Amino acid sequence: MMDHILLTELRAARRSCGQSQASLAAKLGVKPQMIKRLEAGVGSVPMLVEAMAALDFQLIGMGPGGTLSEQLRGCRQKKGLSLETVAKRTGLSRATIASLECGRGSVRSLLCLLTVIAPKAGRRAPERAYWGAGDKFDRDSRFTPPDFMEHIYAAFGEIDLDPCAHLLSPVIARRRIILSEGGDGLVDDWSGRLAFMNPPFSALLIWLKRAFAQWQAGNVQTVVCLVPVRSDSAWFHETLSPVADIYLLQGRVRFLDSEGKGQPTPFSLMLLTLGASTEQRMRFASLVPGFWMTRAPDVAVSSLTA
Ligand SMILES: C[S@@+](CC[C@H](N)C(=O)[O-])C[C@H]1O[C@@H](n2cnc3c(N)ncnc32)[C@H](O)[C@@H]1O
How far is the CA of 15 from the centre of ligand 1 (A)? Predict the structure, then answer.
């Protein structure tokens, strides 16, 4: 089978998240061989859907719908095509097409269907770091400067875990998960009282989801995330923001590049915390200009620190 764009983009998405086939397989609880086969177009649609969700991989260029199966049906119906017509054009049986539209079937059949009903389907553009032209190769290796970290230590205490650390980063943490040393903050369990996360911004959503899951599982008591202000996903609104405290920073942080030079950040930043106490948040507000956003069950805290 020719390499379908979906497969090429799936591989690219995995790599851009810093995942190997083995680490993605571990995350999904399957053998690495299954990811290898999936990326070659062999496997089941439910498996593909799971991998896509893990990589924050969404398709555009199809019909409306929140899931792949809804998109497939929506796409066919929008074009006024009956199951019969699509069956003739694809060489698939009606039952196979109906099955794909219910989220079942094989990846091979799915690709065949997509080629006919949605030839322009592709991955929704991944979030970008927006570090600007000329800085692409190491754009996710921007380290939190020591002066900013001093405020974090002073407000929240000593850091137990940096889940996406780097050997060159000045962040002081008892445990550091370092990709180049075989660690993987998206797979390895988090631990400790306080985790501080300044993640690769090009895969922001996936890291926020990871932080949320680890906090919700009780693996860490408090998570403090230094991230760009990006609030466009439904997940951010529906799941994260009801439980997160968000501090909008006034001004910008100058992150350090791998040579230790300060880089002006071309976007606004926020500190997003899960499980932080009122005292911790008030201390942070007294040290760093900005404000805590009002959260419905927490109005009193926000008005105190505003
Ligand atoms: C923006 S830098 C921040 C480094 C450090 N946390 C800090 O605040 O200075 C993000 C780091 O995440 C690391 N990284 C990327 N994917 C990772 C993964 N799956 N597991 C652990 N670290 C990862 C990159 O190597 C990069 O150095």
Answer: 14
